[in-house]
Structure formats: C-alpha cells, structure tokens
Amino acid sequence: MSPLLDVRHLRVTFTTDGGPVTAVHDVSFAVQPGEVLAVVGESGSGKSVSLLSVLGLVDRRRTVVEGEATFRGEPILGLSERALRRIRGRDIALISQDPMTALTPVHRIGDQIAEQIRAHERVSRHAARDRTVALLRDVNIPMPERAVDRYPHELSGGMRQRAVIAMALSCNPALLVADEPTTALDTTVQAQVLDMLRRLSAQHGSSVVLITHDMGVVAEMATRVAVMYAGRIVETGTVAELFDDPWHPYTWGLLDSIPPLTGPRPRRLPSIAGMPPPPGRTEPGCPFAPRCRAAMPICRLPPPEQVAGGHRALCVLDAPTRAALRPPRVAA
Amino acid sequence: MLATVVARLVQMAFVMFGISVLVFLIFFATPGSDPAARIAGRNASPETVEQIRHDFGFDRPLPVQYVVMMKRLFVTRDLTSFVNRGQKVIPEVLDAIPATLSLVGGAAVLWVLGSLAVGVAAAALRDTAVDRGLMILSLIGISAPVFWLGEVANLLSQSRYHDTWLFSWVPGLGYVPLSESVSGWFKALVIPWITLAVLYIGIYGRVLRANLIEAYSEDYIRTARAKGLSPTRIMLRHALRTSLLPFITMFGLDFGALVGGAALLTEVVFGINGIGRLTFHALQNLDLPVILATVIYASFFVVAANALVDVLYAVIDPRVRA
Amino acid sequence: MTAAPLIEARALTREFVLRRSWVPGSGQTLRAVDRVDLAVHKGETLGLVGESGSGKSTLGRCLTRLIETTDGAVVFDGQDVTRLGTRGLRPFRRSVQMIFQDPSSSLNPRRRVGDILSEPLAIHSIHPAREIPGRLRELMDLVGLPAAALDRFPHEFSGGQRQRIGIARALAMEPRLIVADEPVSALDVSVQAQVVNLFADLRERLSLTYLFIAHDLGVVRQVSTRVAIMYLGSVMETGGTDTIFDAPAHPYTEALLSAIPVPVADPAARRRRIILKGEIPNAANPPKGCKFVTRCPYAQDLCRAERPALRPLADGRLVACHFPPS
C-alpha cells in the first residue's frame, strides 16, 4: 500500500533577527491510509512545525522548507498557494490546539463550517447549512439546529473544539492533522472528544496525524508513533514497540517521568536531567547526548539509525546495553 | 436591545446636562466677573447692564440663572449675541451646521474609504515596496498641517493653475448650499474634503495596517487558511472584520469632534462659514451666549457619535452584544 | 488524623458578582467556593484536584488571604485570620507562601534574581544584612540552581528554572505552609518530573506543609499524602491518596480517574473507561440537589432532590454522595 503522505528529509529553517535557525532537521515519516500516526515531543521539538510546513501554513517569507513530500503520490512541497488551497480543507484538514482562538470570533459557527464546504464544493447555501447541522449532530453538539447560529463565545471550550472537529471533517478529508486537539480541555471533556475523534475519523476513513505531548493520549489513540527531540525524529515504531520496548533513552525518559496512576508510588520520579538544547544548535552529534545517562564519547558523532522492521531509532545503543541501562520500570 | 438603547439615551441626556452645567458655571458663575457686564459688551451704559442683570436673573440664585439661560436657549430661542446685537444665537448656529456637516461628512467618506484601501493594501502586501511606500505617504499625510495643505491647494487651484484645464472648474472660496446647486456644492467642497481627509487617511491607514497584521498572527486566521479559503476572503471576512473595532472607536471620537467645530482650520482656510468659524469668532469676542450654544451643540455631537460607535460595535462584534 | 490542622477552611464561601443590578436579588452571583470545610495538617501534602470551575484556585487564594472570603473562616494554626488587617496579618503573610503556575509573570523582568530574592528578606528583616548573600546562595542550592544564577535576569532562564526561582522566593520567607497553584502544569513532562521531585525533597528537608492545587491527577498522586476532589465549588471526596486512587468512592472521582489516558500499550491494563455525558455545568447556575447529578451515571431521584453532605466511610475518607459503595 502506498503511503497517503510521504515526507522525506524535511528541513525547516526560520530566518530570525539572529540569523537562520533550523527547527526541523532531516525528518522523514509516512502516513498510511487509515492509520493514526502520533508525533510526540515537548515544546520546541519541531512537531507542529513539521506538519504545518508541509501544509504551507508557516510564514512563507520567513521560512525555508527543504526536502520532499508527496500526498497521494503527487508532490506537495513547493506547490503554489493557489494549488495548496485546493488541498487544504478538502483533502487535508487541520484541528488546532486552542478552541478558544481557533474560530473567528465575529462569525456564527455554522457560517464558518459552511464557508469551508462552499469553498471546495458547488453546493447551495441551503445544502451547506443542512450538511453543517448534520456534522454538528455527528460531533454530539446538543440541539445542532440552534448551535449553527451560535457565535464561538457562546459555547464552552469542549463544544468549540467539537465545532472545530466538525469543520475539519466537513469535506471528508483523507488526512486530519490534529495539533494537540485536547490539551486545552478538561480531563472528562478530553475523554469525550478523543472518543469522538476516534469514532469519526474511522467513519470518514480519514488518516490522522496526532501531534501531542501526552504519552497517555498516544497510547489510547495511535497505531504508530514518532518521537521528536530537538527537531529530529529520534524513534519511530508501532505503539506496542515504543511503549513495551523503547530504544531511545529519550523515549525511556518520556515514559518513565510520567507519574503512574496505579501501583506503588516511586519516592522520586525518574526524570531527565537538564533541558532541551536551544533551537539552532549545530553540533553534528546526538542532540540528546548532553542529557543522556547512557551517553558515550561516540555520541558526539552523528548517531546511526537502527532499524528492525518498522521500528527505528537514532541511537548507538544495542539491545543488551539498553537492557542493562534502562532502570526497571515500576510495575504499572 | 431596546433597554440598552433607552439606557444609552438617558446616559446621553445626563452627560449633556452635565456639560451644560459645567459650561454655564465656567462662563457665568466664575467669581469676580460680572456676566451681565460681559453680556452687555464693552462701553455699555449702567442701565443696560442692570437691564440684562434682571433679564437673565443674575440677581437671583445660580440654579435659577441656569434655568433661565437654558429656557432662553432652547425653549424661547431668543438668546441674542451681544457682539452682533439682535442676532439670535440659535438660528446662527443652525445656519452654520449644514456647511460643517457637508465638509466633515464628505471628508469622512473619503478618509474611511481611503484608509481602508491603504491599510488593507499595506497589510496584504506587508514588507513589500508597496507597503513601505504607503506607510511613508501616510506619515507625510499625518505630518502635513491642514492649514498649509489647504493654502497650497488654494494657491494651485485658485491662482497659479486656475486657468489651466486642470483647475478651471474650481469655484471661488466659500460654501454653496446643497439646496442651491448640487454640482456647485460638490465643486466647492471637493478640495476641502481631500485636504481634511489626508491627515485621517494617514492615521487610520497606519492603525488599520497594524491591527490587521496583529489579526494575521491569530489562530483563527491559520484556521481560515487551513480551510482552503482564498486570500481575499480571509482578509475581508476574517481579518478586517475583527480589526475594525479600534478603527470605529477613533472614527467616533474624530467625527464628533470635527462636526463639533474642530474642523476650524479647514473652514477658515477655505472660507466656509461653519461651526468652527462661528466658535472661533465667538471666542475672540467673548460672545458668551454663542459660546454656550456652540459648546452644548458640540457636546451633543461628540456624545451622539460615541453612542453610534457603541451600536456599531454591537453590529460588528457579537461578543459585545450580550 | 493525629497532627493538628495547620490551616483550615471552615464553611468557607467565596462569591463573585457577575452582574450587578439595582433591583435587589436580580443581580447574578457565582458561588465559586460553596461552604467548604477542609484542613491541611502539619507535615502533610494535601492535593486539591478539580477541573475548570471547580473553585480549587479560588479556595487556595482565599486560604492565603490573597482574595477576601465572602463567608466562613480561615483558621491558621488555631487563629482566625479571616478578618485580620494588614498589620495583624504580617506573621501569617510570612508563614504562608504561594507558588503560581506561571512564574515569569510574577518575577520582575528588570531585576536580577538576587535582588528579587533579597527584597522580601529585607522587608521582613529575617536576616541581618551581612547574612543575606550567604542565605541567597543557600536558597539557590536548595532549589538546585547554581549561585551564578543570582546575577542573571528572569528571562535568561527556561520555564523549569523560573519555577525553581519562584520556589526559592517562597522559601526565602521560611514559610510553614506553601500553597502551590498548578506549579508544574506549564512545564514539559521531563522538566515537570524534576520539579515534582524538588517539591518532595524540600518537604523532607525543611519539614514543609503543602497545599498542592493541580488538575493533573498523576502529579497529585505522586506528591500528595491526602487528596480532596472538588467539583463546582464543593468537595466531593477527600481522604488518603492511596485510598482514593485505589478505589474511588464518588462517581465523579471514579469517572475522572477513568478518563485519564494511560501510557500503556496494552488496552487490558487500563481502567474501565467511563465517558461522562454532557459538560461541566455553569458554576453560576449549579444543579439542584447533588452538583454532579446532571452527569452522574448512577443518579437517582434523591440525588436530584437533596444535596448530599460530606460523610465519613469506614476507611476514614469523606464522600459527598447519597449512594457510596459500601
């Protein structure tokens, strides 16, 4: 099966007052039809920038995007704004993090959704409105016939995020890019929204790229995971591979530093010392080496890629060394 | 909604009452000055002064004086100027209103359209030569004093090039009432309109550009782009609409002040007998009744314009409506 | 509970006026904290948990006298401090320190870290002037920052380091109680773990008492000895951390715990997910009866009619539910 979105050697550089800063280094990933790929990382890891630059949603005048990317086999990087416009919203839709700011405050929810439908399809105002009501019903917004005429500020955060999701699904996109879709929501509301997102993306046959920092959300939602650190994908694999046998010490750190909800409580949480490197770092070696408890002199050279099937990691450690170094996981 | 409008009207009446009291106190109840003598004018006979004192009730308590004054101003409308004795104040103000409204209204249309064009173009073509050029032109427009601009316009259109094809249509200075001749009205005012509007196009254009650029960094603009909308639609429907609030606030204040007499310099330069000029002459001659009338009139426009701004706010931004 | 309460909320109520009205009774008020009784005992860490609108931050601010209390009392170390004025409050202000979510907004960007930290020392004249430099280095050491950090400005630090500075400033006063309001929720996971560990270390070294307000249940479980779960201004359940996390008694606690995505690949290792219906009701217009009744999967007629009081269960915890599991 050929991938829906195939990104190779993506490199994103911002021009800043202090000179060029490379936010994404040589990132490659592919999204297969029907799968949910989670891109995980902390703030500044380049996870959002990677996806937004493929969609041409970064500031073009201040950003250099290099590499190759194809969508349904056709190149997508470097397309004109006009050509991208036909893809955005129709074939690839975006759900952004903060539902409070993602909708234009002065227009009704329904108008904003219908506007997207009418931008891509020749349908009457009336038909677009009917479809909007149906979409709002699908995302479990109560009384959708009335909700279409509401303004964003009249809805709660959870309801707004539902409206944003309805909008993203409105043209049956092949790919949904969800950028921290539940980070701004309360826990009980997050559970509702994730549940709905999973159900609807399956129903619409959309693949999903889920950008998140929450390993719990990854485990619940994703089929495959890519872990980003300092602008690179340091490890990628299926959810089972990554959670049960993580290769990269950064992935260990991410998993182990989450306080467990059951079982014995460790006196201290395993944590990663130090902090992420500033953007624009240029040393060739492993970017995680300064914080890595397994770092060796060889880590000052560019790390090799280890591959076993779909599981890959940018790290020199072999299986026995990993087993010896990783602290036993506190029983979950 | 109706309750809001009524509350707003009551508020307006209250503000205007406050202003009239304040103006009255400043001009007629300042300790150490005799308003009767001032109304009587220079070299008035003691009998006249006494007569005025009695007529205006200056020998009675302050609240009574205020009521008498307001009655003569609004009810009997027979308050007279003391510089041009016998000249009734109210008709004088009413006569000046059409000229000022024509001048400011026309200029406002120009400056709203002009600054929308400048702001939108500059923001859309941000950081290009067009943007920089427009911003420099705006700055020049802001810096050019209106009296200088007006005199240059007069110099070119009235004398230097008056006989060329370019300016031969320009009538002499002064106001032509709309009821007299529509084309005459337009011809007489078109150059004053442009002169008055230049400053405001500059200010509003720059402010609008800044607001638009701020709006473009908002999440909802990214959402709009991710929806696949055209740049024009994003600009006009999503960015411009939310950027108009400060624009409208400024417009309310400026329009109210200009109609209230702040277009004085333009009126003087182009010989238009409007409120500005009327106030100016009244101040020069300390013509208290006229000053009182024009200040209350001006306050009416400022307050009314601001009320209108509030209504426009609610039309543009649903968040204000609640 | 053997230790005496260090700080106590007694029937504490805080209302906010949403809309004033000239007609009495027609204005709208929001009861953010609704007659809450809660005590933090010496040496313990009480984790205060809740979603938006639960009133947890408002309660924290009332307890620290950062905002006024509408009704009820704040009792600190046996003394009612609810109505004390500025002068009478001085010892309290020193003993109770607050740490916020975003330290950068509470650190003056134009002053060096050393100046920020020494100011409260000087104001409360805690140390003679000559001892201040030594004390500052000690504080830096306590929070795990190099002494060189004293000469730098807040913006030169990362989020995690700024939070350490915020903690150092609170510690400078040698407080007995620290009220931390979402102190780690703005931090990335790896840095969050460092700061959570720092809180634990400090409690041991300085025998501190914490009121730890957070929405992240994992973090709360890690740091707390006891927890209280709030919903719409009321405490729904409170008790020992393990008691509650191992077997939640209130349906809301149960749903809240089950709603957290667990970072485990095997679906069998997860709790049974309870997805609640509907949204958190508007705090200005809470449901009649039990506040959770609109979303509770087990709601019955009694729940709609009568608001349950906090009642003790056999294991010592308190639950505000008409039908707790027996």
TrEMBL record, chain A:
What Pfam families does this protein map onto? Answer: ABC_tran, oligo_HPY
Chief subcellular location equals membrane
Q: Entry's InterPro entries?
A: AAA+_ATPase, ABC_Ni/Peptide_Import, ABC_transporter-like_ATP-bd, ABC_transporter-like_CS, Oligopep_ABC_C, P-loop_NTPase
The protein's location, in the record's own words, is: Cell inner membrane
* Top-level lineage group: Bacteria
UniProt keyword annotations, A-Z = ATP-binding, Cell membrane, Membrane, Nucleotide-binding, Transport
Can you name one GO molecular function term for this protein? ATP hydrolysis activity
Gene Ontology terms describing biological process:
peptide transport; transmembrane transport
CC per GO annotation:
plasma membrane
Domain ABC transporter per the UniProt entry, residue ranges: 7-255
**Record membrane topology:** Peripheral membrane protein
Q: Which CDD domains match?
A: ABC_NikE_OppD_transporters
Extent of the signal sequence: none
Q: Which family does it belong to?
A: Belongs to the ABC transporter superfamily.
Name of the protein this chain belongs to: Oligopeptide transport ATP-binding protein OppD
Organism encoding this protein: Rubellimicrobium mesophilum DSM 19309
UniProtKB/TrEMBL annotation, chain B:
Swiss-Prot/TrEMBL GO biological process terms: transmembrane transport
Q: Does the keyword Heme apply?
A: no
Name the keywords, alphabetized.
Cell membrane, Membrane, Transmembrane, Transmembrane helix, Transport
Question: InterPro entries in the record, alphabetically?
Answer: BPD_transp_1_N, MetI-like, MetI-like_sf
Transmembrane parts of this sequence: 12-30, 101-125, 132-150, 184-203, 244-270, 290-316
Q: Where in the cell is it found?
A: Cell membrane
The cellular component terms of Gene Ontology attached to this UniProt record, alphabetical and capped at eight, are:
plasma membrane
Stated family? Belongs to the binding-protein-dependent transport system permease family.
Positions of the ABC transmembrane type-1 domain: 97-313
Regarding the membrane, this protein is recorded as: Multi-pass membrane protein
PANTHER family associated with the record: DIPEPTIDE TRANSPORT SYSTEM PERMEASE PROTEIN DPPB-RELATED
- Which Pfam family, any one of them, does this sequence belong to? BPD_transp_1_N
| Chief place of localization | membrane
Protein name per Swiss-Prot or TrEMBL? Permease of oligopeptide ABC transporter
Family annotation (CDD domains): TM_PBP2
From TrEMBL, chain C:
Q: Specify where it is mainly localized.
A: membrane
Please give the name of this protein: Oligopeptide transport ATP-binding protein OppF
Q: Which organism is it from?
A: Rubellimicrobium mesophilum DSM 19309
Question: Which GO terms of type biological process are on file?
Answer: peptide transport; transmembrane transport
Q: Which SMART domains match?
A: AAA
Homology family: Belongs to the ABC transporter superfamily.
Membrane topology (UniProt) = Peripheral membrane protein
**Pfam families, per this entry?**
ABC_tran (PF00005), oligo_HPY (PF08352)
The terms under GO molecular function for this entry are: ATP binding; ATP hydrolysis activity
Any keyword Nucleotide-binding? yes
UniProt keywords, alphabetically? ATP-binding, Nucleotide-binding, Transport
What residues does the ABC transporter domain cover?
A: 18-257
Q: Can you name a GO cellular component term?
A: plasma membrane
Cell compartment(s), UniProt: Cell inner membrane
Keyword Nucleotide-binding part of the UniProt annotation: yes
